[in-house]
């Protein structure tokens, strides 16, 4: 049913330049997408147009050039670096006598290859079904009625209508299963919220080095490779930060310009980790000449998934490929970290990144000196479990004199769950 193709196929690539900025795509990115899909590019057709044509997307002369290249090179598929309508795909296929795939179909195919978890496979299948539902006619051009006769009379549907009905039923089934997965994720998030564990989500353009950084920080062993969409399924790991305590680090799918809307909708449950994070680590490949454009594209997707207001700390990655750049932290006028320059591959600047993380998550820290009476042994035990005691001495009357440093939220937690008399034990505020 799906337009999946096996690795090793040969493709002719088509890339057009348009004056409209919103319609432009990157040719180098197309070549990386094709390589990531396991397809060999044997030919390339480029051109310039003011706008696409309704029938073939390209002009008739350019369409003939594509068909000639397909025949001369023995290509199996034509891949456009643009979104095509179903009718444009069908017209081009008739002309080229081979399959035609647009940018959205190519990205969906890569996602289908990368999905590993049950949830990831469901999300990809949902996006694929929505994408091909308008393209079913390709496989059913005969439009025959189901065969009649005694005992064989069908409902009178065309094969196309039957397939569309089955597709709708399958989409409804997947949506129900994804709702269950979403409820499970929400339960996990509520549990972390109750425990007041901050969540840090890695975001960035695809192939920026998010998974490599994730592995360096957590030793998680997540698959990382120099290819687009190496990571598809989200991974969560706990890390320990000085003065903050435990935090959850989430590795998420990479973004790309003009990310298909069906994919954004399908991965809503996954992207919710980003929406509800306390801090976003925006990983940027600063060795990429187009890093500024990539930053803009990521911010566009963040706005689209309603995560544009989540605080960001920019991670300028791959400084090992930039001559003369050493690991360092850039700060704003108030002294807060805004950029950290690192190399996740080489492990450079990891200590600075952890320092910036601690500062970003632990800005609301409190320091107190407490005088705790012997009857409050439970409070003292809680302080030791939280590892927030910096020094402790004993008064002559047996009270404990304790200096503590902790996040404000932990202080309120103690007041709520251990003792409501906590502020009465404060003898000095630092």
From TrEMBL:
Cofactor(s) required, per the database record: Mg(2+)
One Gene Ontology term, aspect cellular component: cytoplasm
Keyword Nucleotide-binding carried by entry: yes
Metal-binding found in the keyword field: yes
Keywords (A to Z) from UniProt: Cytoplasm, GTP-binding, Magnesium, Metal-binding, Nucleotide-binding
TM region positions: none
A matching Pfam family: GTP-bdg_N
Ranges in a coiled coil: none
InterPro entries, per the entry: EFG_III/V, G_HFLX_dom, GTP-bd, GTP-bd_M, GTPase_HflX, GTPase_HflX_N, GTPase_HflX_N_sf, P-loop_NTPase
Binding site for GTP: 204-211, 229-233, 251-254, 317-320, 343-345
PROSITE patterns: G_HFLX
Compartments (UniProt record): Cytoplasm
Domain spans labelled Hflx-type G: 198-365
Gene Ontology molecular function: any one: GTPase activity
Top-level taxon in the UniProt lineage: Bacteria
Binding residues annotated for Mg(2+), in chain numbering: 211, 231
Main subcellular location: cytoplasm
HAMAP family tied to this protein: GTPase_HflX
Protein family membership: Belongs to the TRAFAC class OBG-HflX-like GTPase superfamily. HflX GTPase family.
Biological role stated in the UniProt entry: GTPase that associates with the 50S ribosomal subunit and may have a role during protein synthesis or ribosome biogenesis.
Subunit composition and interactions: Monomer. Associates with the 50S ribosomal subunit.
Protein name: GTPase HflX
């Amino acid at each position: 049913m799906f337009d999946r193709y096996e690795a090793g196929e040969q493709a002719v690539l088509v890339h057009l330049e348009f004056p409209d900025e919103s319609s432009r795509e990157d040719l180098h990115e197309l070549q990386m997408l094709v390589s990531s899909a396991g397809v060999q590019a044997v030919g390339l057709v480029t051109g310039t147009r003011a706008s696409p044509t309704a029938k073939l997307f390209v002009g008739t002369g350019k369409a003939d050039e594509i068909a000639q290249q397909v025949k001369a090179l023995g290509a199996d598929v034509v891949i456009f670096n643009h979104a095509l309508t179903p009718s444009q795909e069908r017209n081009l296929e008739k002309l080229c006598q081979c399959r035609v795939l647009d940018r959205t179909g190519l990205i969906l195919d890569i996602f289908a290859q990368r999905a590993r978890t049950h949830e990831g496979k469901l999300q990809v299948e949902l996006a694929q079904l929505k994408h091909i539902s308008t393209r079913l006619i390709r496989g059913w051009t005969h439009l025959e009625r189901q065969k009649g006769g005694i005992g064989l009379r069908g409902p009178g549907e065309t094969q196309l209508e039957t397939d569309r009905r089955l597709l709708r039923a399958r989409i409804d089934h997947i949506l129900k299963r994804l709702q269950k997965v979403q409820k499970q994720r929400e339960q996990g998030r509520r549990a972390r919220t109750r425990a007041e564990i901050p969540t840090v989500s890695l975001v960035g353009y695809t192939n920026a080095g998010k998974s490599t950084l994730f592995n360096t920080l957590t030793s998680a062993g997540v698959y990382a490779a120099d290819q687009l969409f190496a990571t598809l399924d989200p991974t969560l790991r706990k890390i320990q930060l000085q003065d903050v305590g435990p935090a959850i680090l989430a590795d998420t799918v990479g973004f790309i310009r003009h990310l298909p809307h069906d994919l954004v909708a399908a991965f809503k449950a996954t992207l919710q980790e980003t929406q509800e994070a306390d801090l976003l680590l925006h990983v940027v490949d600063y060795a990429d000449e187009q890093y500024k454009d990539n930053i803009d594209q990521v911010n566009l997707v963040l706005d689209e998934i309603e995560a544009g207001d989540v605080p960001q700390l920019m991670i300028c990655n791959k400084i090992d490929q930039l001559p003369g750049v050493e690991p360092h932290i850039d700060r704003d006028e108030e002294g807060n970290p805004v950029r950290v320059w690192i190399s996740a591959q080489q492990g450079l600047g990891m200590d600075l990144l952890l320092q910036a993380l601690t500062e970003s998550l632990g800005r609301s820290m409190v320091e107190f000196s407490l005088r705790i009476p012997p009857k409050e042994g439970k409070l003292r035990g809680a302080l030791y479990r939280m590892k927030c005691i910096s020094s402790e001495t004993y008064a002559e009357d047996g009270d404990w004199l304790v200096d503590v440093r902790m996040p404000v939220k932990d202080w309120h937690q103690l007041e709520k769950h251990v003792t409501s008399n906590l502020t009465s034990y404060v003898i000095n505020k630092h």
